[in-house]
Amino acid sequence: MKFKLIALDVDGTLLNDQYVLTERTKQTIQEVHDTGCHIVLCTGRAPASTLPILQELGLEGTMITHNGAATVHADERGQTLVNEFAFPLSEIRPMLDYARREGIHFDVCTPFNMYIERIGEYEKQMYKKFLINPKLVTDVTELELPIVKFTLFAQPEVLDRVQLEWEDQKLYGDLRMIRSGDLFIDVMSAKANKGNALKALAASLEIDANEIMAIGNYYNDLEMMAFAGLGIAVANSPEDVKEAADAITASNNEDGVHEAIVKYCL
Questions:
Q1: What average pLDDT values come out for the chain (266 residues) when binned by 10 residues?
Q2: Which CATH number do you get for residue 212?
Q3: Annotated Gene Ontology MF terms (predicted)?
């Protein structure tokens, strides 16, 4: 089957461990795009840090950001919010109190902005790596804005403990908590995931799930890979992510996206 849409996770999948898009992968994506295939970046990143990668690919179009919580269309006129799964800040107050008490770094995101209450050198380097420029405020709850994502950033052993405690206490309530990377925990609307966002986008484009190929590397990619007709995990994925995939490609450091597109699309 000729795939009409390719959904690509960014960090750990499309980019290598140096956060570089290789020339070979870029050329392959441009080649398959030229055949009429939609390329959709599906990432935990915000639109502002996803757009430069889309532009580096020489493309414009729709980006699924914040792990599916905000879908944004980008073209020469700017960025337009297509869909969002937002919730009030009041719903994360118990988690905010916990993070402040334990000294764990956090940020809160609207579709287009990120807010933090403090920042150190370690966090500055992380945000720089992901092309993020967060806004520093005294108290995020004073913003009184609906948000799409609440994120913790800490060492894996810290987040392992947080994950166990929050699951045990159901501290996230009716929201959804996911581990989006070794160093990140995201809390979002229960409806927000890459699979639901991709499903909505595919319906608007009149593309069937069987005409979609999705490539990812982590637990936040599972719904997207399950929805697609062909869900592919890169070789650097955790074992249970690879077990859930339909196929395995090379790692992100070995141009796994390039390999998969050549094998299944070109």
A1: 92 96 97 96 95 94 96 90 94 96 97 96 93 94 92 97 95 93 94 96 96 97 98 97 98 98 95
A2: 3.40.50.1000
A3: magnesium ion binding; phosphatase activity
